[in-house]
Amino acid sequence: MTAPVELVRSLDARYYTDPQIFQIERNGLMARTWQFAGHVSQLKEPGAYFTFEIAGQSLFCIRDKAGEIRAFYNVCQHRAHELVSGTGNAGLIVCPYHAWTYELTGKLRSGPNIKAVPGFDRDAICLTSVKVEEFCGFLFVNLDADARPMEDWFPGARAQLTAFVPNYAELEPLQWVEIPENCNWKVSVENYSECYHCKINHQTFATGIIKPETYDIQPQGYCLRHTTECQNLESMTYPVDLDANEHAGDYSSWFLWPMFSFQVYPGNVLNTYHWRAVDADHVVVWRGWYSAGGLDSDIISRLAAQDRGTTVEEDIHLVESVQRGMKSRGYRPGPLVLDPACGVNSEHSVKVLQQWMREAVDG
Ligand code: FES
Ligand SMILES: [Fe+2]
After folding, report:
1. Which residue of 95, 110, 126 sits with most ligand 1 atoms within 8 Å of its CB, as the best mutation to test the pocket?
2. Which of 47, 50, 74, 327 is the most exposed place for a label (fewest CB within 10 A)?
């Protein structure tokens, strides 16, 4: 007699609805993982900066005079006024409250009347820095000062992405589209990380871009790597030159746990997803598209519009319905569909993701 098989069940609904669990994730997971900050093209000149928010913390990235990109908490070391807002270019960072002035390296340079203070040690005061790493032109920060480098978290992903997008250094954002979703960030990320729903819900994607029967998702450290072939050329919704590059006929994505994904559409078209969790019931998804110099490209613009009108729109309805369902008294988490052969109709990637989600909350 064979022993009964223990089914792997989906995560309890409270993980997606409980504001206390969201707080645990915000103060823990989001503050100790690599989070997308922006793109290097936003910091072309020394002094260029942009602000952003991670785990409820206001931060900014700036290029210093030696050309190095730095990230800091956006707070003055005097009496906590915020230093900068939006984007801009600064020769020095001057606090709007009492005009304490910092070098672009974060060191305090001057402040009105500070010399009158006996024992004032100017050299001991510096903005609080945050770890920042560039990854194929994209900037990521980690609020954990002891964070391991991205290569340890996502082994091999940088080299693989470079092979798919060898011209990444020329690319700049063509558009970043904001897509608010009324759901927990994990509902959106899980939906992104399986293609079991693709054939039924994403006609255009499944028949005009990729070949679902070749789709698979495998973990690679804390990266979930998606791979598939492109659709037969006569069925593709846009032209692809297969001779342009060894990966021109492939689709691949690299989801970097917990809230970012690089995607390369057939024809080596780079695009990204990044998620900004708002609260237990809301997430904002940003869809990014890139072109050489950020210049308009007919093919990429049309592909982006098609994607926004089909896959993205279709997913909004799915994830918002799931979030409503998570609040139903009638929901009992069902078994995941784990096909030992993996493939498009298996949820093995959701199993991995939910293990990471449980670890983030329960330790
Ligand atoms: S709070 Fe910044 S100078 Fe006083
Ligand atoms: Fe989807």
Report:
1. 95
2. 327
